Amino acid sequence: MSVGSGSLESLRELNRLRVVDALRRHGTLSRADIARVTGLSRSTISTLVADLQDRGFIIERPEDDPPRTLGQGRPPVLLRLDPSAGIAVGVDFDHTHVRVAVSDLSRTVVAEASVETDVDHDAPHALDMAADLVRAALAEAGVDADRVLGVGVALAGPVDQAHGRLYDSSILPGWQGVDTAAELGGRLGVPVHIDNDANLGALAEVTLGAGRSARTAVYVQMSSGIGAGLIVDGRPYRGAAGVAGEIGHVTVDDQGMLCRCGNRGCLETVASVPAIIRLVSQTRGEVSSVERLVALATGGDLGCRRAIADAARVVGLVVGNLCNVLNPEMVVVGGDLSAAGELLLGPLREAVMRAALPAATAGLDVVAGELGDRANVLGALALAIANSEQAVAARIAAAGEVG
């Protein structure tokens, strides 16, 4: 039975996409690496790479020649996606700021920008600011808007994955009824994909940061809110309704302060950055920001050090119980407050080990994130890149027609 030319071309197109996808996921690979990742033969890879180079999608990036001894061959030539192949945008809507980043499909960030604003109560204004920041970042990078393949968005609230929008919730009162993907997509004219901020922070840390070696991990985000991103078998676990990991609303004091979610005594009411700042400001005067809080603590202020340690212990208690359920191999602590280093990590680690079963913590690493407050926006970029396959396929096909 013969195979028609159309079928052969469809197979070639599929294999081209497999090569591009390997480079999207890994950033830089040799031809042998691509063959290993895709399962295609080396001769097929050589042909596909040559074709994609002709179409302007792949470029070679030789490694700096290391010293060689007699008998050693040259190092392999590394390949990456050409920056002109497409651009991704990440947007992080935190409770108190909007941050954007622009990268090529190999995850090289070419521009970033951020601005402080009240995100929670005015969605249209926050969306307008995000669109303005994206345009400014593209201009700074010298990138035409028509090269943008998609936008990933990190939202500090529960996300309905089935419908691609936030659940109506008192956590983000100004966003009720707002179709974030459609609204931002309308402002920018490109596809928009959304997820919870902690999920995307987790994705960034296990892809680019401290959790690169972990298949099962918990990412704990300590910022203006508290959330956890769960990684199972190397992928974000979102749960049946997409709200897994909302540890900020675990009750730790049923007679405690009223939380923005409507319950009392949630973890966020005692251990989020605003809660810690509110506490220390009662005794030492106003502390205006998390940067100021961390600076005072690392400079020896006993009240700030104690407040951070107490918050860490409560978070560690909740995370320790989560470890009994999930049994991760790694806990990665990120967010704005992670800048406090061991002042935060030490008591949190101790509380995790005390709360969890010994079997659940055998071999468990509790480490600081490597990406800091950029984790969410880098995860949003990864989300945009992961969802760019159709746009890339169209551009590859168009390039072939032109060629």
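The record above closes out task 2.4. Task 2.5 opens with a second protein, given below.
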Amino acid sequence: MSEWENEFNERLSALRRELHRYPELSWQEKETARRIGAVLENLGISYRAEVGGHGIIAEIPGRSKGPFFALRADMDALPIREETALPFASANEGIMHACGHDGHMTIALGAAELLLRDGPPAYPVRLLFQPAEETGEGAKSMIEAGALENVAMIFGGHLDRHYDTGYIVVSEGAVNASSDEFQIVIGGQSAHGARPHESTDAVMIGSLMVMAIQTLVSREVDPAHPSVVSVGEFKAGTAPNVIAGEAQLRGTVRAQHQEVREQLLQGIRRIAYSICELHEAECRVDIRGGTPP
């Protein structure tokens, strides 16, 4: 490895660790964007900031005036407390780059430097630094701001600990599933634990829903079509001797085919309302649509 390559690798490693140390949540990536801008300025690359939030669009002219090839990286971190004890662990309490976005930004900036090293690339390249990936909203906001205008192809990647370092894995077809969230609110009747006949037990009703929802994937979806329904939150009750009159379920739906996605969301509504009707409880189902496959 040449002296330049060693210096390049060390510089990128330091940049990644700096970005990791100062993570910011979705729609709050102001300082992250400032640091990216500083690197771009140092490379002599012009850019536009505050695109669709704190997003950045930078452009590298090519030898041809043809359409752009785009490289995309996400910027936001997760609301997770870091417990790695690393010397560059997050300095922002309760926030962590646990999904690799610090690496994605560094890779894109490193690619930009390599593209400039031997003169202008054959075609112009657009660098997209996207905010709010974790909320599923940042890509849309940047597209609406013109990020993909005159773009022929766009490339992105994701760090994945399931593969060995040094390997790049490419898959045909959809790689990431759609991601939607659902919330089910059950309205029953509270009662003393010793008098269940006076209640409409929201915990029991919610438990039936959790089990029934799992049959959507196991019994209603073609096994050749990957999909997942997960209930991540179940909130109910105020005391161990009081039957809960209200419960709230929250979860996610993921699918790699649009028709399966719609089938699952309709199935959740059907199951929730049917179980509530069976037990004479009130029900509300809210779906928060996210990103497509």
